[in-house]
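<amino_acid_chain>
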Amino acid sequence: MREWIPVSTSPRGRLALAAVEAFGTRPFAEVTVAELAAAAQVTTGALYHHFGSKLGLYAFARQDVERRLLDRMEGAIAASESASGSRSTPAAASDRSAAVTSAMLVGLDFAVREGFLHILGDPPAGTDHDRLAEMLSQSIGPAAPLLGRVLAAAWRAALAAIADGAEPEDARAAIAALRLHIPNGA
């Protein structure tokens, strides 16, 4: 549960909303502190007061956006697992593969619809903690520990391609074409 939910009329809330919009549509390095402050109608000092730095504001905005993404993806996996039955059936690995692919497509659609191509398409800035890769790894199981990182990179590459002008349907087709081989013991 979040400790704080931004209120759009507060300076902190306006900064958070401005950050989600700016970092969603442009890479971290292209967004300036002055532009974030101007969009939120605050001084740059307010940004530093509330978030410590541009990276601190980015981390706050990314955590919020990423939580919304992961909620949707985890929901897609849970729905797929409910529809396919128990994870202990002989087809469990195939079902899990389909569930992970479905979740990646749900996440892609969410990121495109909300305009979060860069904030979610870029690897996390300022940290090695990759919540998307961790969630995908947990969904796959322990038999394929690096697969979550590989899938997260492929998913982000699809978002980057869209940000560079590719059609979202082409990116969806690329994700759907991935064939995961998850060992039965996973």
In short: Residues 62-177 form one domain.
